[in-house]
Amino acid sequence: MVKILVTGGLGFIGSHTVVELQNEGYEVVIIDDLSNSSEKVLDGITAITGKTPLFEKLDLKDKAGVEAFFAKHSDVKGVIHFAASKAVGESVKEPLLYYENNISTLVYILKELKKLPSAAFIFSSSCTVYGQADELPITENAPVKQAESPYGNTKQIGEEIIQDTCKVVPTLKAIALRYFNPIGAHESVEIGELPIGVPQNLVPFITQTAIGLRQELSVFGDDYPTPDGTCIRDYIHVVDLAKAHVIALGRLLQGKNKSNYETFNLGTGKGSSVLEVVKSFEKVSGKSLNYKIVDRREGDIISAYADTNKANDELGWKTKLSLDDAMSSAWKWEQKVRFNEY
Ligand SMILES: NC(=O)c1ccc[n+]([C@@H]2O[C@H](COP(=O)([O-])OP(=O)(O)OC[C@H]3O[C@@H](n4cnc5c(N)ncnc54)[C@H](O)[C@@H]3O)[C@@H](O)[C@H]2O)c1
């Protein structure tokens, strides 16, 4: 069995990816420091796959700890690196926390991968690198714009660090996956998103409002130049996103990559407005959502959705699940989390 390290594997996207990796027969070892997740996620992964992944509780900022991990697991063939801090607002207030957590951890892992005879590396990047793109849909060739936040900057710098390293380490092959907006939960409702505190993202805010944890959803601006005036994003079901990681990893392990460093957009190719997401939620849940239109929020991008041709053609990957599927699973997950004291 091919052993894969998944950092941040107990988090939202990481846990769904561990499920898909195990379903495809990979042996998974997770590193997570539980700073934004719970060890209970292991039970959910086990319930779905019938297999408990190896788990090492480790803060990847601990350089000696990372070295010791790779000394113990020298048979790791690939790494999917999810572990990072991801709250944009917090990153503005605490930039050094973000640069330390998102950059030093990446460097420590790459230093270890450099020592291996060969290694495949998948990096969690983001469409935030494009900022407000000049052309829609956004292709991988769209220019990387000045980052709007320290968080966004860590993704840009992270990509540059990997690219520079791949240039001089021929045994290292890497893919940066630029996610659009991951939402939803596994259909089994065994794993999902577990935001700590007030959710930063639209969908958990919607489900928490519907369940009574938040009073109402604020829709920031309805006077944007879009069909209904609200901002547009490309919402991708987390299970579709997870499957793309397994395909990207296989591409590297089987040597199908065209260069040692590649980037792919992961989105559906379809933009949905905030009000369309609210309507989808109301349709699948049968509930009416309490929301109000408020002023625009500073720094919001008007519209962003992916050109998926490269991922479709090169990776042979396409999203299968719809916005309604994602909203339905997110709502089932919210009810489970609230009523079963997850
Ligand atoms: N969710 C999104 O909307 C989105 C969009 C684009 C990119 N991304 C990126 O995808 C990745 C995963 O995102 P997510 O939504 O699953 O986040 P998440 O917070 O649910 O998962 C990240 C996991 O990493 C762990 N972690 C953080 N710092 C660590 C450290 N120093 N050592 C060990 N473990 C650590 C956390 O405990 C958590 O379990 C992140 O890199 C994020 O920036 C997320």
From TrEMBL:
InterPro entries membership: NAD(P)-bd_dom, NAD(P)-bd_dom_sf, UDP_G4E
Reaction catalysed by this enzyme: UDP-alpha-D-glucose = UDP-alpha-D-galactose
One GO MF term attached to the UniProt entry: UDP-glucose 4-epimerase activity
Protein name: UDP-glucose 4-epimerase
Cofactor list: NAD(+)
Pathway annotation: Carbohydrate metabolism; galactose metabolism
Catalytic class of the enzyme: isomerase
NAD(P)-binding domain: residues covered: 5-327
Pfam families for this protein: GDP_Man_Dehyd
Similarity annotation: Belongs to the NAD(P)-dependent epimerase/dehydratase family.
GO terms, biological process: galactose metabolic process
Keywords of this entry: Carbohydrate metabolism, Isomerase, NAD
Signal sequence, start to end: none
CDD domains per UniProt: UDP_G4E_1_SDR_e
Keyword match Isomerase: yes
Description of how the protein assembles with itself and partners: Homodimer.
E.C. code: 5.1.3.2
GO cellular component, one term: cytosol
